[in-house]
Specification:
With 138 residues, the protein is of the alpha+beta class. The protein folds into two domains: 13-49; 53-130, ACT-like. Chain A, domain 2 (Alpha-Beta Plaits). It has helices spanning 13-25, 31-50, 69-79, 107-118; strands spanning 53-63, 84-91, 96-106, 123-130. The protein is elongated and about 60 Å long. It starts with 12 loop residues before the first helix and ends in an 8-residue tail after the last strand. It binds nickel (II) ion. Nickel (II) ion is lined by residues 64, 89, 91, 97.
C-alpha cells in the first residue's frame, strides 16, 4: 500500500473555476479525486505509447448487408486472433450490427488491427478505446 502525499498546486483563478465547474458536472466529490483520475488517464496514455502490452476495446457499428463485409471482418479477426480476448455482437436492427472486441497486445499491433477494421467499406463507426491492465495504477 502506498502512502498518501499532499502537495500544493498554483493555478490561474479562471482555470480553477472552470475545473471546479467541470468536476461538479461530472459528479466528483472533491478536486483530489478528479486530479487522481486525470493522472491515471495520463499514465494509461503513456502505457499505450510505450508499446508494452495494453488492453482496450474496439467498438464498431456496421451494415452487415454490405457485400462481403461480414466475411471480411471475420477474416480480419481470425488474422489477429492473438490480439483478441472476447467479442460481443448485437443485432441492432435489420441492417446494423454493433460489435465490441476486447483486445490486448502491443499497442502498435492493436492500433493496426483497429485501423484495418475501421477502413472497411460499410463500417459506419469505429472507435478504439484505451483501457489499462491496471498494473501501473494505484
Ligand atoms: Ni448482427
Amino acid at each position: 500500500m502506498s502512502s498518501i502525499v499532499r502537495f500544493g498546486v498554483s493555478l490561474d483563478k479562471k482555470l480553477l473555476d472552470d475545473f471546479d465547474k467541470l468536476i461538479q458536472r461530472k459528479g466528483y466529490k472533491n478536486r483530489s479525486e478528479a486530479i487522481r483520475d486525470l493522472i491515471r488517464e495520463s499514465l494509461v496514455e503513456e502505457e499505450w505509447e510505450s508499446g508494452t502490452e495494453i488492453i482496450g476495446c474496439i467498438t464498431i457499428v456496421y451494415d452487415h448487408h454490405v457485400r462481403k463485409l461480414s466475411e471480411e471482418l471475420l477474416k480480419i479477426q481470425h488474422d489477429h486472433y492473438l490480439n483478441m480476448l472476447s467479442t460481443l455482437h448485437l443485432h441492432l436492427d435489420h441492417h446494423n450490427c454493433l460489435e465490441v472486441i476486447v483486445v490486448k497486445g502491443k499497442s502498435n499491433e492493436v492500433k493496426s488491427f483497429s485501423d484495418i477494421i475501421s477502413g472497411q467499406r460499410g463500417v459506419k463507426f469505429s472507435k478504439l478505446t484505451a483501457a489499462t491492465t491496471g498494473r501501473l495504477l494505484v
